[in-house]
Amino acid sequence: MSGLAVLAGMFGPAREAAAEEPILVEFHYTPVPEVQMAIWLEDQDGNFVQDVLVTQATGKYGIGNRPGVWNFVSSWRAPYGPRQNVLPVWSHRRGKKYPRIIFHDDNPADLESLGWHENSSSAENYYCRPLTDSEHETISVDTKTCPSPKVFQSDKGRFDPKGNLVFYPPRNDLVEFEPNADHDDIKQYADINDLDAVTAATPVGDMPEFTTLLLSPEVLAKGPLVAYVEVNLERDENANFDYDREDDHFVDTRLENYGIEFLGQPSVVYKVDFDPRERAFVGTTKYLGYGDWNGATGSLHPADGKLSEEGGSGADRLRVMTKNGDTFRWGVFSYGKEGGGTTSDGGTDTGDGTGASSDSDSGGATSEPGTGGDDTGDDSGGWGQCSQLRPLAPIDDLALAGMSFDRVQLSFRMPAQDPDFELTKIHVYHITGDKPLTDELLGAAFLKSFSAAELGATEGLVTLEIGELWGDYTYQFAVVYEDKCTSRSPIVGGEITTQAQEFQTVDSFCFVATAAWGAPWAAQVAALRSFRDAYLKTTATGVDLVRFYYAYSPPLARVIQHEPLLRGLARVVLQPVADAASLATRASHGG
Fold first, then answer.
1. Contact of 76 with 88, CB cutoff 8 Å
2. Closest CA relative to residue 59, chosen from 211, 200, 267, 228
3. How far is it, in rounded angstroms, from Cα 387 to Cα 483?
4. What does the mean pLDDT of the chain come to?
């Protein structure tokens, strides 16, 4: 049965018995920027019931299950290192296991490397090459775009042949494969990743958010439920969880200047108990506990004062917020039976919002349902403003315009709506490639959501900008909007090719140098490439030398790339040349 039909059954005039009707539930919270989070339901006996939401770095891009060492140093959109500590309580409570992903590169010497995987790498459509500390600070805060992405390719991995399993799914965004670079296993990643329906965009941060869910009759039959949220944030350290880059993280000795520390305070968990059959709001300001700092188990450590509780850190990753007179960090509103606090036979429902709801196990005070907010003429204190299902018309006149190599502007018109229509979010999807976005491909696309509060006025022409793109790539875009009752419009799509990134040098690599230093983006390789472009390619003799090098160096590079001793000898020979090339190039640019 489609979601539209289910909602029609919920709000239509011909209602079935209340026990057979789904019930709408809203989850309210205000996260800080760049968090990873998961929302899920359990029954009163602690049995996992249902996923509600997981942010896309975990649900779509597989940061919990990807090749490499778990505590690899990090950087903006780092490609390697399974972050098993990202949401460990949620992942273990689900109880679902997946094949462990390891490097496709079968050279044992490369298993602890950030960059020595060119022989098993293919074009990357999301992750960036590892960054130095200074690059990370510039890119993650300022530019938010990968440097020269067409130079970097990534090892997408394969299933562990030993049959080891983990609690996180692999990425599901891959739609194109390179036969001579990718392992056949990656074609199965999307099939075994079962989080597509609940994966959501990373919240913008420091703005009120809410997520809705229609509970099925099967879930309602389980009785009162428990709503959990787990929130994590990289590099969120305090005195109790202070980690050093050199001593507490794995640093690739062959690329020791790349990567930053990422460990910090562990994930924090909130919970509230609620009965979805009662029309009421319940919330809490106190956290229940926290996960393992390294994600080794799914243990929930009780609140003990070790986490920070202010400044957007630790337990304050969910901000204290006030809505409709209720103050909370984590809150749930259920529309209840008949959507209005009465039983199916018209009698008074016991959950009429006149009494205080029970405290959660965290010991924190919960909000009294229906005690504050605007007077709406019912007993919900301003909560529960969804009244009916409506079919939504698609947007009109979608136009795409390149603003720079890494930014695209979308403009479109919202269609005319009924007077009581209330927009909640506009979702913008994008993916690289030539295949137009369809409903079937949305699960593989990157998602950016704009809340109504963030957008402001949405009448007439709406203009949005999407950043963090790559230069000289073809992108497919699609736009969907959503109202307060979770109705979604049909998708409307378009295509654009971004401008070239002017400073990129994306043609042939320095083959032997790349083999010697492990990555085409190493400083020595970059210096040699710059010298080639500035000097050798400007003279006839230089061009002949470059052609000779391209013809005869690849076989030599393939020999040395798997032999540590030969790599070392190549670096000894090439280092003075790279230094001289760097000096010459800098001199030609005035310093």
1. no
2. 200
3. 11
4. 83
The string over 17-49, giving b where at least 16 C-beta atoms fall within 10 Å of a residue's C-beta and e elsewhere, is ebeebbbbbbbbbbbbebbbbbbbbbeeeeebb
Query: In angstroms, rounded to a whole number, what is the distance separating the alpha carbons of residues 451 and 424?
Result: 6
The tens digit of pLDDT for each residue in 334-343 reads 999 865 432 2
Beta bridge partners of 41: 50, 227
Which pair of tokens denotes residue 112?
């602890």
Q: Give me the half-sphere count of Cα atoms (radius 13 Å) on the Cβ side of residue 341.
A: 16
**Nearest-angstrom CA–CA distance, 115 and 110:** 8
Per residue in 262-278, pLDDT tens? Answer: 999 999 999 999 999 99
DSSP type of residue 538 = G
**Distance separating alpha carbons of residues 320 and 248, to the nearest angstrom:** 32
In 27-125, which residue ranges form alpha helices assigned H by DSSP?
A: 56-59, 88-94
**Who contacts 44 (Cβ-Cβ below 8 Å, separation ≥6)?**
223, 224, 225, 226, 273
Select from 72, 101, 119 the least CA-distant residue to 563.
119
Q: pTM of this prediction?
A: 0.81
Residues in contact with 118: Cβ distance below 8 Å, sequence separation at least 6, in sequence order: 153, 514, 515, 519, 520, 561
DSSP annotation string for 452-501: HHHH---SSEEEEEE-S--TT-EEEEEEEEEETT--BPPPEEEEEEPPP-
The Cα-based distances of 586 to 397, 509, 530, 579 in angstroms read 49, 20, 10, 11
Alpha carbon distance 19, 216 (integer Å): 10
